[in-house]
Amino acid sequence: MDITFLGGPAPQRGVGVIAPFDFALDRELWRWVPDDVSLHVARTPYVPVEVSPGMARLVSEHETLRNATLALSAVGPEALTYACTSGSFIDGIAGERAMCQAMREVVPVPATTTSGALLEALAEFDIRRVAVITPYTKSLTDALELYLAEGGVTVTGREYLGLTGEIWRVRYQEVLDMARGGVADGADALFISCTNLPTYDVIPQLEAELRMPVLSANQVTVWAALRSIGAPAVGPYQALLDPAARSTLGVHPAAPSAQQPATFANAAEEVFREGEGSDTPIV
């Protein structure tokens, strides 16, 4: 077969993804990505520690993020994202904002993180009360709740597995069981934390069963990164991504209002715009 008439592969837009060294779900990220976008994944250096607040800080040091961003710069990404929930919430909103700035200092393109994307997704639905499930220990789960509180979001119920490693091996049934136990009265959405926890196939089932939006770490990560370059994430029967699924739950995007306090996602976007064309670091 002669394929020379094609000239070459179709043009691809690129998103640079920085993931922790133990990230094992590359394929899950790709399931949300349209055909004309490529993910370029770089991992942080290996450190022999268990999943913990200490590890979250080690894999999120600014020098680590800058080095990974520099490696990704060779392929010219249009946007960058740090795909780690605990690493991006462990030092609160100020810490998350500083991580985005550290990446942008190396490659001046839109930069997001999983935890920043979570607040952006909750703002999309105007959700202020959320149930949370995590594979983490209590200490990391507590830190996530503090981060959400700082963003104006109340945790109405939660469940956690207490794992310190090999989180990618958790079965879907365990995720479903946690979700059913973690959703308490008053929750308007469910968040499934950790980019190393498989979630793609459980989201539609949980949304149908719980009758509320279900957001996962990998889902919001890809959604926000693609949104930053004006590209849509793909994901049938997921309320964040599919208007048909959203309408069945009776939820709609929050209307912008001058009366609403600025969300962190909006603030981060303003910081990025203000920093364009300036040599002054924004922290």
**Named CATH topology:** Rossmann fold
- The number of distinct β-strands equals 8
**What's the average pLDDT?**
90
Radius of gyration: 18 Å
Low-confidence stretches: 257-283
- Alpha-carbon distance between the two ends: 55 Å
The percent range for helix content is: 40-55%
Summarize the biggest pleated sheet.
Answer: 4 strands, parallel
Quaternary structure state of the chains depicted: single chain
In the CATH hierarchy, the architecture is 3-Layer(aba) Sandwich
**Class derived from helix and strand content:** alpha/beta
Strand content: 5-15%
For the largest beta sheet, what order do the strands appear in spatially? 2-1-3-4
Q: Count helical runs.
A: 12
Order of helices and strands: EHEHHEHHEHEHEHEHEHHH
Name the shape in a single word. globular
- What is the CATH C-level name? Alpha Beta
Short descriptors:
283 residues, alpha/beta, Rossmann fold, four-stranded parallel sheet, 8 strands, 41% helix
Give an overview in words.
The structure is a single chain. By secondary structure, the protein is α/β, with parallel strands linked by helices. It has one domain (about 5-250, about 260-275): Rossmann fold (3-Layer(aba) Sandwich). The chain is about 40% helix and about 15% strand. The protein has 12 helices and 8 strands. It has a 4-stranded parallel β-sheet with strand order 2-1-3-4, sandwiched between helices. The protein has a 4-stranded parallel β-sheet with strand order 6-5-7-8. The longest helix is centred in the middle third of the chain and has 15 residues, at about 90-105.
